[in-house]
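During the no-cost extension, the postdoctoral fellow (Dr. R.K.) reprocessed legacy sequence entries with the updated structure-token encoder. One reprocessed record is reproduced below for audit purposes.
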Amino acid sequence: MKKFLSFLAAAVLLCGFTMASAQERVLRVSTDGTYPPFSEINAKGEMTGFDIDIAKLLCKEMKVKCEIVQTEWDGLIPALRTRKIDAIIASMNATPERKKSVAFSEPYYQNPGRFVCKVGASHEMKGKTLGVLRASIFDTYATEKLKNVVKIKRYNAQTDANLDMQANRVDLLFADSLVLEEGFLSRPEGKGYELCLDPVTDPKYFGEGIAIAVRLNEKKLADEFSAAIKAIRASGEYQKLSQQYFGRDIYRITPEGSEKKTVEKK
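Re-encoded structure tokens follow.
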């Protein structure tokens, strides 16, 4: 009888554990995997990078299971709106235009847009070919501000734009300063290139900073992410991760700060 009761108790506990596990909240978080050092595919075929690790930290803080889903950049918002994913953590700027279709958390980092060219190249833009990520704020800015100055070449992945820069198919790159500094210039493939021209911070294109996107009617989830961002900064976990990837806290980066970092690295 005692054995039976012990078995029954164990079964109840196991059943309870299974039910609790089955009820675990899951968030499908997406990024594109081609934006080093924020997201990229390693030799094992796994997505790694700052955005991936931030997603895991935030999910842990929110006590939810984080399922990372790779989606091409220009398909991220459509995937969110059609409920294929629940959140975008992909270095996406919270711009006024995007706020018409998605809701955003508070920013989890900020940095200006920068240009990259060959060391010693003329900084005159007229007639040059500019590489940008398709459907990004850099694409929008170039299309509206530079279409009569440069030839714009659009890419589905930032890594493809970087490769074309090396192959002399473009004269300039335009992207996030950190992506260009840490994902290109600081790596072997970035040898012989440098930041050039002035930083770009126009709020119309850069918005409030880089934030987490959720569906427009799920402001509560955006608020949960905002609270989690505050929590991991208060605990120091954010700063530790930022130091690991960038050697500094990227939560608030000004054009001056970005430039200072570049000078120190040379």
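The mean pLDDT is 89. The radius of gyration is 21 Å. The remaining legacy entries will be reprocessed before the final report is submitted.
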